[in-house]
Amino acid sequence: MSVTSHDVARLAGVSQPTVSRALRGDPRVARATRERVVEAAAALGYVTSELGRSLKTRETRQIAMVADLENPLYPVLVPALHDAFAQHGYRMVLLAERGDDMDTYARLLDRSVDGAVLTTSLLRSSLPLRLAEQGMPFVQLNRTSELVDADAVTADNVAGGALAARFLLDLGHRHIGAIFGPEETSTARDRERGFRSVLDEAGISLPSRWVRRGWYGYQDGRDQFLSLMKVDRRPSAVFCVNDHVAIGALNAGIEARIRVPEDVSVVGFDDLAMASWPAFRLTTIKVDFGRMAHQAAELLVARVKHPDGTPRHETFPVALSERSTHGKPVKDRLPA
Fold first, then answer.
1. What's the fold here for domain 157-287?
2. What is residue 225's three-state secondary structure?
3. Backbone angles phi, psi at 230, to 5 degrees
């Protein structure tokens, strides 16, 4: 006969409900009791039945992360989310999304998960709206949709864009260019808004010939930087929407024999691990994605337990990470 949770309870000297709570990581169970239950389960070869548990509680104890696998933030967010959900006894499953994907919608709305973390939302994404209509708990992490008011955790992207612009102005730059991101995402929109606002306040123009726009990848940065550097009067500094774009720009500079920062300064956004690598030493705006992911998990677990209530919006501060890709402009490069 198969081993049951009642067998584990007898061996561990606890009640059967305590076994269930201990094995799903319920924080109300004392550490010593949990360890005793785990040892008893291992000795008996007991394996919990997620199917049986979900039938009884109508919970799957699973959370879906909707992610774009090509996004450089994916490997940054996954470990932090996984660990945070595990502390609450949830498994995290991954759903790869490319645009408004009906397949993804179906896999979320069939109730095979208790909630979802959305990291790919476009401003007009229909997925958050569909989930809200169906009463599926979710939290938006990093990006947000403008179609629905829901729990969200973001960086202060407006302040970050403003910080980058102010930093370049303080260095003496007045001929400033930018490689902005896609207008249909909240991150790109807000970073651009903050950047432009500071330049406007300072009376510094951002002419269209010094502006490029792309997605968030390395190739976007490479191609758009080379395009910027081909204009007759090129800028002395370039702000990039994220670090992957900035690193593409740095490598393009090497190809084109344009020195950074001697000929042009480059500033990124996010402060991914590779930004600090000796090969790049990128000056960038730091975002604490680890803390953001942890907070997103906390919000979602609370929402699963208490579906009603006012949506919470958590905005995390950003900071400047000064490294080696910035400098003062060469005074005689461009006419005033």
1. Rossmann fold (3.40.50)
2. helix
3. -90, -10
CATH 3.40.50.2300 maps onto the chain at: 60-155+288-317, 157-287
Domain 5-48 has CATH 1.10.260.40: yes
Q: Where are the alpha helices (DSSP H) in the chain?
A: 5-12, 16-23, 31-44, 50-57, 74-87, 102-109, 127-134, 157-171, 186-201, 218-228, 243-255, 289-305
Q: Which residues belong to CATH 1.10.260.40 in the chain?
A: 5-48
Sheet holding 62-67, edge to edge: 91-96, 62-67, 115-118, 138-141, 152-155, 313-316
**pTM of the model as a whole:** 0.81
d(C-alpha 158, C-alpha 106), whole Å: 34
The residue-averaged pLDDT of 163-189 equals: 97
Single-letter code of the amino acid located at 168: L
CA distances from 121 to 56, 203, 245 (A): 33, 34, 20
The two structure tokens encoding residue 145:
């949709």
Please provide the average confidence, as pLDDT, over all residues in the chain: 89
Tell me the fold of 60-155+288-317. Answer: Rossmann fold (3.40.50)
**Percent of the chain topping pLDDT 90:** 66
Residue 97: pLDDT band by 50, 70, 90 thresholds?
confident
Separation between Cα atoms, residue 153 and residue 314, nearest integer Å: 5
